[in-house]
DNA sequence: TTTTTTTAGGTAATCGTTATACTATTACCT
DNA sequence: AGGTAATAGTATAACGATTACCTAAAAAAA
C-alpha cells in the first residue's frame, strides 16, 4: 500500500542502499543521483517509515511524561499541563514524540515504568515528582534508563531532578515586602508537614535573619490549602492586639480567604495590610485586589527538563546534573508601591 | 543486551515460533510446554520488544492528541488537559500510547498531520477543534486516516466529531431558572460572532419560546469574555427601570464582573438577582457566592472521543458517527431554591 | 605508467517479531 | 486396520530501513 524505500530504489534505478544513504545524508553519492533520487521520492510522495527506522536504530523516539492526575484536584496542580507543554515544545523540535501517561497512584506509576522500560516503548522518561517513589527511582537508576524527575524527591541522589527553589521564593516574598516598607509580617502556611510550605517559610525566616528583622511567633500559622482555612487563620491574626502590616499567604486559596477576613474587618489592602502569595494562577489576577505573586515559569521548567533528558539520552553516561528554577516577582495591587530612595530617608 | 524471543526459545528448548504463539495466545500448544516457556520467560525477565512487534504488525500503537496551545491563555481553555486525561485513560486501557502534540497555529497543525500520516507515527489522531482547518480535515479524509475532531467544525461532514451541546446548555440554564421561580431573565453573552455564545443564546431563547415566556430585548447583551465586560454589561442592566430577577452569564469571567456590579448596587444574590453560568472552572465555586453552573463533563468527552477513535482504527470502514456530550447542572448558591409543588400553588 | 587513494554505488545481513507453510504425532471414525 | 482430522510443533520468509562489507571506476600520487 504505502510506498517504501524499495519502490523508490526501483523507480530511480538504484539500490536501496543508495536511497538510504541519500535519506541520511551520507557521503559518496554523486550530486546527480542524489538529485534524481530526491526527485523520485517527491514524485512518489515517499515518507520513510518511522517504525522501521526506529526499530533498526533500536530506539523508540518516544519520551514519556508520567504524572499522577487526580481528577477534580486540577486546581491544585494547574501547572502540570504547562510543564507538559514546555517539555513538548523541545521534544518536538528534536523530532521526538512525547507521550502522556497519567496514573492515579505511585504504585500504578511503578508498574507503568516497569512496562515502559521492559518493552522499550520509550527512550526516556520525565517523571512528575508526585508520581515518584523510592521504588520507582531505584528501578530507573538500576536500569540505567534516562530519566528526569520534576520536583525533587528526597531519595533521588543518583537521578537528575529539576525543582523549584521554594526557599528563594520565600526570601523574595519577604524581600519585596521590605522594599515596600512593610515590617510586621505574618505568614499563613499550608500543613506543617508540607515540604513546599516548610521551604517557603524557611526562606522567609532566613531573609529576616540575615537582615536583622524579626516577627512575632504567633504571626506564623499553619492550616490547609483552602479558602476557609485562610479565612480563619487571618481572622485569628486580626484578633491580636498588634496587627501585622503585611501577610505572606502560601497559596492562592489561603490568600482568597485572608482577603475576605480583611475585608470583613473593613481594613484595606494594600494600605492597611499588604499581601503577597505564591504561584500565578488565573485566580491571582482576578480576585480583588489582584495579587502580587512570586511565580515560577513552569513552562520554562518543562523546557529545561526535556532538554536535559534528551542530552542524557544521547549521552548515557552524562554526569548527574540537577537544576533549580528561579522564581520571579509579579507585582500587582495587593502590595503598596516600593519605597523610593526619597521615602527611605 | 536485552533478552529477545530467541533467547527464550533457546533456553526453553523450543523454536521461536512456539514462543511467539505462546506470547500471542495462539492454539496448538500443549499446556506443558506453554507453562514451561512462560516459566523461562519469567526467569529471563523477558519482555517482548514493542518496536519490533509494532513494526511487524505495521502499526505504531500510538494515538496523537493534537491541540493548539497558546500559552497564557490556559484559563480560556482549562478543559484541554482534562480532555487529554480522559482520552489517555481509555488509550491506556487498550494498551495504546497517547502522544501530545501542541501547535500554535492551524498551519502548524496541518504540517504536523502531514508528517504523522506520512511517516506512520500514529494509528489515529484526536484533533482538538481549535487546531482544525478545512485543509487539514480534507487531508485526513482523503488519506482515510482514523481521526476524531473534538469540537465540531463546520466543514467536517465526512469525519467523526464529538461536541458539546451548547444549545441544550442554554435551555437547561433557562429551565432551571424557571424552576427556581425567576421570570425576568437577562443574558450576558460573549462576542456576537462567537459560535458557542450564539448557540447558548439560541437554546435560552428557544426554551422561552416553547414555554411561552418572553424577555425584553435589551436584556440580551454582547460583550467580551472578561470580568470588565461583565461588569459594564451588568451595570447597564441595573440602570434600567425594570431590573431582571436573574441573569445568565455566558462565562465565568463575565459572571465575576456581574457579581461585582450587583454587589455595588447593594443587591443580593440570589435573593434579588439569581445567576447561572457555564463551565465549571475552579473559579465557579471559589467566588462569592459560589455559582450555579451548567457544566460539561469534558473528561467523559475525552473518554468517548478516544473510544470511538479506537473503534475506527480497528474497523476502518466504520460509518461516520458523531456524538454530542450532554450538559449537566451543578447547583450552588447563586440561585435560590427550586420551588416545590406547594410554592407553585 | 603504475600504484594508491578516493569516490560511487551495490550486495546482503540484520534488527525482533509474526505468519505461512510445512512435518510429525496423536485421536477419532467407520 | 485404514483413512481422515485434529493437535503440536518447526523452519523460514517476511516487515522496511540501515550498514558493514564489497567492487569498480575515477582521481591522485608515485
UniProtKB/TrEMBL annotation, chains A, B:
Keyword set, alphabetical order: DNA-binding, Transcription, Transcription regulation
Highest taxon listed in the record's lineage: Bacteria
Protein name, entry field: LacI family transcriptional regulator
Protein species of origin: Candidatus Galacturonatibacter soehngenii
Keyword check for DNA-binding: yes
SMART domains in UniProt: HTH_LACI
Key word Transcription regulation present: yes
UniProt lineage: Bacteria, Bacillati, Bacillota, Clostridia, Lachnospirales
Gene Ontology molecular function terms on file: DNA-binding transcription factor activity; transcription cis-regulatory region binding
